[in-house]
Amino acid sequence: MELENLKDASEVVTFAQAVKQGLGKNQGLFFPKKLPKFDDIDAILAMPFVERSVEIVSQIIGDELSRETVTGIVERAFAFDAPLAKVTDNIYSLELFHGPTLAFKDFGGRFMAQCLTEISNGEPITILTATSGDTGAAVAHAFHGIDNINVVILFPKDKISQLQEKLFTTLGDNIHTVAIEGDFDDCQQLVKTAFDDVDVREGLHLNSANSINISRLTAQICYYFEAVSQLSAQEREDLVISVPSGNFGNLTAGLIAKVMGLPVKHFVAATNMNDTVPRYLKTGEWDPKDTVATLSNAMDVSNPNNWPRIEAIIEQGYVDKSVISGDRVDEEYTQVAMRQLAQLGYISEPHAAIAYKALVRKLEEGQTGIFLGTAHPAKFRETVETVLGQPISLPQPLADCAGKEGLDVDLPNDYAALKAHMFKLLG
Ligand SMILES: *Cc1c(COP(=O)(O)O)cnc(C)c1O
Question: Which of 129, 231, 266, 376 has a C-alpha 20 to 30 A away from that of 185?
Fold first, then answer.
């Protein structure tokens, strides 16, 4: 498979290089030089999830990894389901939260961990990452117990929910967690400083495992196929999918699935008040504003880092721009949507509720709609309980870790202290 840097087309890399490097020169994103297309989509849709996902991944990365290797990666990464839950006669929720950390980021995180394990071939690697919640937990669980890979996760002390924190600080073994006396931006700055420090970068073989890694997108394409496979032939004929969006990785994967032949008529890019993309789709002007905090905090992004990939899909003529429409759902309507869903018997959380609201506004008579359920409601328990006025119970993975002791250490917001700590742990 060949991928090119979207900022410098002369930089062409293999899948393995793109996975290891993350970003290209000038912070450019890697994108496949050519997107494949299935000839017989019905045959693909008829396959079971894991088998079908092996087909999809093999189509994308070509013969760079053997089919046996791809099968192992997919089997280990996709060890849980992505069921469609019926909400009304013609609306479904695609539940992507049945993995170990209860959010869709488990799909991409686990797939990336398995790819990196295969590609690095036993060389030691240190993953260093900063988190404000979901990503850290997914990365920690995905790499937990993998030989030769150590993970160091920085998070802002006392600034994320107890439950979120326990999901990654209680693992131990090769997962090292550090509570920084600062905010999320301080944590990100420490990570950047470490990547600029040759001693640490080379001495500890740093890798960022961040959200723009091409392996994550590759994984996410698979669950769009899984969603459509669960619909009847008739429902597949006029289908709209609504995607709750922050960095727009999820929507990018959906569009690639369409390019590969998946029958989706239209995508709704649903955002909270951080609505750079909906405004851009309406006016043609890219005008990011300051990021505002919302109930759907995993989507509090005003300069989405995957957008250049969507531009590339449109510019290269794979899909027409009219296939995507944007919609912004404000805080009040996020809560209204959560209550409406509860009345329909479906308990949801703010991110999925935004996608539901935007879907309902777009859906026409005779169409079928799917919105992506990106996180389990218990992950946003306080918000959900407040908005719905009813208690919700903890699913097993959260209940299991809630009573355990966190193994994190405290450090000041000081690079020298972090460096000393990392060498003591791993040097
Ligand atoms: C990360 C996240 C999103 C946003 O996904 P993008 O791919 O960044 O657009 C939506 N919902 C939840 C719960 C998330 O964790």
Answer: 376
| Structural domain for 300, as ranges | 81-103+215-388
Which ligand 1 atom is the nearest neighbour of the CA of 351? 11
User: 263 vs 38, 46, 47, 322, 362, CA distance in Å?
Assistant: 11, 14, 16, 16, 18
Global confidence as pTM: 0.94
The residue behind tokens 């995957």 is 306
**CA proximity to 82, closest of 319, 250, 306:** 250
In a domain, 255, yes or no: yes
What's the pLDDT tens digit per position in 57-111?
Answer: 999 999 999 999 999 999 999 999 999 999 999 999 999 999 999 999 999 999 9
How many domains in the chain? Answer: 1
Whether 247 is in the pocket of ligand 1, judged by its Cβ within 6 Å, is: yes
Ligand 1 pocket residue status of 151, Cβ below 6 Å: no
What is the C-alpha to C-alpha distance for residues 85 and 348, in angstroms, rounded to an integer? 12
Pairing of strands 206-207, 175-181: unpaired
